[in-house]
Input
Amino acid sequence: VSPEHKLNIVQALRDKGHVVAMTGDGVNDAPALKKSDIGVAMGITGTDVAKGAADMILADDNFASIVAAVEEGRSIFANIQRFLRYLLSSNIGEVLAMFLGVVLAGAIGLVPGEGSAVVVPLLATQILWINLLTDSGPALALGVEPADHDVMLRPPRDPRSSVITGRMWFDMVFVGVIMAAGTLLVMDWSLPDGLLTRGDAAGRGLRQAQTMAFTTLVFYQLFNAFNARFEDRSAFHKLLANRWLWLAVLGSTALQLAVVHTPFLQRAFRTVPLAPRDWLVCVAVASSVLWAMELKKLVMRPAVEPSPSRVSGA
Output
């Protein structure tokens, strides 16, 4: 096959929408290596011209290494998306909870005290606690999620596409709205002047309601960490595969127990102890984000099953 033929083959495949990988070792392979999406030169037998034109050099001249490299790259990219999906959706939930809590303060029973014009659902120290301690562990754990077995069955990503896809934005906003709504409903239920006031709310104060909302939002984010593992698969798929995620979730739960029940942390974060019933309410409401996403994935799964990869090797 002449260099011109190789170049024409690469161009024809690209014109049909394929992502083309070209391997070569000689000077005559350089034009096709340069034209392809991924040019792979041989590291042992390849010429300097071929290596210069290639995007990647195969150090051991073993074609199996190409497959392993693609799999590793796809896994890293998927983990970056998991990391972003988790952090951005959680932050959207926090922002909406704070914004809507101020806007709807009167409706949910958030009444400013004397000398105060506005009362917020969560204190600044509580938001910092969530962002710096509760979020960090699960986010880092998602960055080391083991590779999924079907990663090589998926079609190549469009090089022009963004790291955050349109579907990811929809999912993140969907999760954020659920988190904000549930957090504010728990606060409303805990306040004596709320729309869904509990029976014994008359003896509860603002700090009690803020502690409930604070704890609910923390558990929302912990449940959301399991959602973020997969875009279309169930959160229960290979549930125990990532031990670091479980350690992070358990560690964050222990920290939240400490901030609610340890006296010196109560003073710093203005929390009050919660009864077992209150903890159950917080966890039950927070789990709604998991079940909502599971239902959404179940409905959409037939349309997103992975198809054979459209990767062509020349």
Notes: The two ends are 11 Å apart (CA to CA).
